Amino acid sequence: MSKLFTPKNVIAILFILVIAFIHFFSHNFIDNRASDLFTKMHANFINKSASDNVVLVVIDDKSLKKIPWPWQRNLYSDIFDYLEFYAGAKVIAFQNLVIYPDTYYPENDKYFYSNLAKHNILINSYILSGSNASGDVLPPEYINDFLEKSNVNILDMRTNNTETAYKSVIKLPKMMLLNSKYFASSFIQEDKDEIVRNYIPFVNLNGRLLPSLALSAYSMYKGMNTFLLYDNKLCSADNCKTLNMPIAEKPSKDYIGNITDSFLVYIKWNKPIEEFYSHKVYSAIDIIDSYNDIKNGKTPRIDPSSFKNKIVIVGLNSDASVWDFLSETPVLKKQADVDVHAVVIDNMLKNQFMTASNKDITHIITAVFVILIIFGFKNFRSNLILASILSILYLIYYVIQFSSNIYAEPLSPVITIFACTLLKRLYSIVTTDKTTEMIKRAMGKYISKDVMKNVLSNLDKLKVGGIRTVVTVLFVDIRNFTAISEQLSPSEVTAVLNEYFSVVEPIIGKYNGVINKYLGDGALAIFGEPIKDKNHALNAVMCANEILFAVQALKNKMLNEGKPKIEVGVGINTGEVFAGNIGTDERLEYTIIGDNVNLAYRIESYNRILKTQFLISEYTYELVKDIVDVVKLSRVNIKGKTLPLDIYEVLKVKNPDER
Fold it and tell me: How, if at all, do strands 311-316 and 54-59 pair?
């Protein structure tokens, strides 16, 4: 268990959970909105025109400005009479609900009920209830009469029938129930975010499948009344040739919060042609005025042929009424409910519907993409390119699916793979930073921190090679350390050297120097590379001066502790060297090479001969002569040099105010 729950594994598990959460969140809260945007674009530019066979008659602001709400119901009768007997409409679907008797105008109410019996193409609306005990539902003795008012027979061919929460029908006036030929459900369902994306084509009342307003109107228009319900589709009785409607069944809440089974069809939306509507719309008051024109022997202001052999949906949409009957849809912020019914009828007439993709396929695609990212490139940029390519491929897949009338998830796979890419990068940073620090601390004990910093900042440029450059080389050495070490144990030798170098190294770093290597009891330091410093000679001399003072203090301390007396010598030279990486592609070493490096070592060796501590070459002297007091020593022959060389003993490094 301890091996399983290592910090690295725990971080990996957390990142996987975060990826899963991001996918879940985007799938449930972003995909619908993204799909709405694409649906709107598709409706505006591709699926433009609605069917001319469906038109709307709406009680709108214009109507209510002339005749204020509430309308007397005889006005509805005038609209129905005009549409059926004068205009020759083929179907009239009345979306308004008539629930209570009109107690203010009982005579008009009575006329309305009796007039209903004259109409053979009129479909009235109702809504179902989840309870049969309320006084607001249809009494049980009228249920059979109600069931006979359906013009549609849906045969249930499903292999697994589900129960329904609907128990009864919201109460209808008795005379309306008896005189009406047909009823259909006008309920429009919203998704959880209160947007209408699908439609309920039929409802289940205690096992009896009853049509929606759209299905009832379509059935009457096509002259077919038998449909077959399978597990995932509703079909016409001609082997699905005329109608093949994909059905998605899922639990949902009805308008009063009851949980019920909903048989959903995903709507294929049309381009809106004006505010609230995607179908041709006529004001109800114009229809009434046209009807009065005909009765008075005048030419009607609305040509009756506009409704000839068409499905006409009559409904309400006005801010001046108690209800506005508007819903938010993917194509309109406010779309009239009468138009939603019309869009579904249009889908049925064209036999074109949207259907949901298999979500398992989307989840599998996302999982494959995530695996490709996780086990893909180590380089973040390459992984980002891979994520972009995968996203483009998925979006192409989405467009193809949508063009085939299939709703897929547009963004959740894309969001998930980019989130995975970023989290992989974060995981790499979190898990490698600690390892890198450990390596840096460990390697810092073997090579210069400045060299290491240069290496880490140029990892992609590491190769054999270098440059020729002018640097100042400092060599510091303990006098006669071999003799001293013979008197000490190995551990004591190590302790003395560690204490000595712990004093010397920080001073070298203080003056931008880099210790290139330790040579036993000596140290070779470079000024000017790899840390660029135009005052490398000056800094090297000041560094040597401070080292000598620090070692003097260390010598006194060690003598007080009973340790051996140490003396050091310093040699400095300035000149051109080769600085860079030597070795092979498998193993490199950063170093400096050249006679001028050896010269610093050999100059220091003259401290023993000349009984001095601090010697510099003539090349270094020329660069620092303004800040030092020196004694010029006789020209000496340096091994490897053809001509004798002047060297200088530094007696004092001047303070800034003395220069």
Answer: parallel
